[in-house]
Amino acid sequence: MTDTPQETLANLLTETRRFDPPPALAATANVTAEAYEQASADRLGFWEQAARRLHWGTDWEQTLDWTNPPFAKWFIGGKLNVAYNCLDRHVEAGNGDRVAIYWEGEPAGDERVVTYAELLTEVKKAANALTDLGVVAGDRVAIYLPMIPEAAVAMLACARIGATHNVVFGGFSVDALSGRINDATAKVVITADGGYRRGKPSALKPTVDESVALAPSVEKVLVVRRTGEDVAWTDKDVWWHDAVGGASEDHEAQDFDAEHPLFILYTSGTTAKPKGILHTTGGYLTQASYTHHAVFDLKPESDVYWCTADIGWVTGHSYIVYGPLSNGATQVMYEGTPDTPHRGRFWEIVEKYKVTLLYTAPTAIRTFAKWGDDIPAKFDLSSLRILGSVGEPINPEAWIWYRDNIGSGKTPIVDTWWQTETGAMMISPLPGVTSTKPGSAQRPLPGIAADVVDDEGNSVPNGGGGYLVLREPWPSMLRTIWGDDQRFIDTYWSKFDAMYFAGDGAKRDDDGDIWLLGRVDDVMLVSGHNISTTEVESALVSHPKVAESAVVGATDPITGQGIVAFVILRGSVEPDDGLTTELRNHVAAKLGPIAKPRQIMLVPELPKTRSGKIMRRLLRDVAEHRSLGDVTTLQDSAVMDLISQGMDKGK
Ligand code: 6R9
């Protein structure tokens, strides 16, 4: 990590647009402004009340134990079952016939409708099957599945029997999968023969076979038949339809301690060994459930919710599985990509299921903007009432595009900042309360103590920039890095005394609202000024010809670092000779001459991680004419060849 001083993080972009909550939404909102007051008067009391939204078999004796920081314990002595909270209690309350999942496969016409009662039965059977395979509470189970209902069933079955799941994204390779299985010493792997990707079956089982050969802890592999393609078979393999299909439908959920490990999820980081982020039971479910209820204003009887993330990421864990299901939501789950079989697939799905709440990522929004406004315009999107964003800072112009083209110019947008490590949303507008600002996540949610501090850990005044930190423990915080307490302390708790360091740069505007400015490793130092990549990218995206951009600081003999911008144009735009000059001048006009890019490269694609985040590190390698660093987390490695070729030409 670069040790760039942040106190002078320049505050360049100004944004004056404001959007008040629609009055009808504000009038019936699940959470009102009072929640902020309650939480600031009594933070622990506030979280106790949020925890009361769940069913506890045994009440807790103490809300928080913070006597051994940074190792927190929440709801000490309390016991609950996560699967019971997500399923049984809704069925017992008479809502068994409510649809839990409208599943839409990638091949058009491949669909399933799963009610809460049906999902419960499947989870009970899978829980029995896992028990029959020798899995007991505390064991780790790796899950490597496509986006099919069995992925949620597998996670909930683990939770039901107290096994700790470790979901690995279905696109990862043997190295990544075997590394994660070994780090977690998983006893069982749950996988499928394959999934569908861009219209074709894509095998998963061969990667599992190779990984299991490198992972001595694995005793059994449970295989879902999804594509029906031939697979090699070993003596550890068991078909899901045999083991789960033949299992008993009776299973009584046993309660587990609030601090029982629920899951491990690996974050890829940049180059270092992946970190196994450990989440536990009671605090995690409390915050995942409460934030989903508050930020999406979920009305389980009438809303249809859709989160487009993959279950292999934390967003899929907290906002496809645990948050929505604990709240009794009806949701869409989609297996495929946004452009299969055509670029209107997302909007076709919104129209078909009358989706009311949509949660997606800036990378997707910018791609849709690039494809053109005419595509969503062909569909009826009038059912939508709240739009969410997560994963990266959303550029103000992408935010406006989202609101205008997807939200009919009237839906609130909730820009939710959080991390794998935080487990659940931390900073976000509340849709019935907040007057929103395009590009800002704005305010810590009730019960969350987020702050922006300078190098010494002092809060910056309004108008200042620095590091995002969390000053108080929160229920869904990571408890440690699996097997490495010291790395947990070093990574998150050593930069500042008694504060969690998130690794993101941020600024506070004149109203005190928070703007996320990207990872601090990406901050540029130009002629002695710290400039955030996010602000320069947002200035570029505010030009009508630009769909997306990525900005890096490349070593410069005169200025220390020079700004190099990689730009993707909107679909219909033909570049002319003057365009790059026009864009450089546009940035200078928006942000000031200090932020004017030294060089602009027009590129067809940008390097992204598999969860859609721009990998600026690789672009920095290109801009400084170095050979590329680790590309294993890259979604599409051909992208880098295209960009490097263009860079050489533009030298
Ligand atoms: C949920 C998730 C975490 C990092 C985080 C930050 C970036 C996520 C954001 C955002 C600005 C938002 N990030 N949401 N930046 N605004 N609304 O993405 O978790 O994959 O662990 O990534 O993503 O940089 O530190 P994870």
Summarize, please.
31% of the residues lie in helices and 22% in strands. The strands form nine sheets. The protein has a seven-stranded mixed sheet with strand order 5-4-17-16-18-19-20, sandwiched between helices.
CATH topology of the largest domain: Rossmann fold
Radius of gyration: 24 Å
* Ligands, ions, cofactors: ligand 6R9
Could you tell me the number of beta strands?
A: 30
**At the fourth CATH level, what is the homologous superfamily of the largest domain?**
ANL, N-terminal domain
Percentage of residues in strands: 15-25%
SS-derived structural category: alpha/beta
How many separate helices?
A: 20
How would a textbook summarize the main sheet? 7 strands, mixed
Using the alpha-carbon principal axes, give the shape. Answer: globular
The average pLDDT value, as a whole number, equals 94
Read across the widest sheet, the strand sequence of neighbours is 5-4-17-16-18-19-20
User: What is the CATH class designation of the largest domain?
Assistant: Alpha Beta
Q: What is the first-to-last residue Cα distance?
A: 28 Å
Q: Any low-confidence stretches, pLDDT <50, length ≥5?
A: 1-7
The total tally of domains equals 2
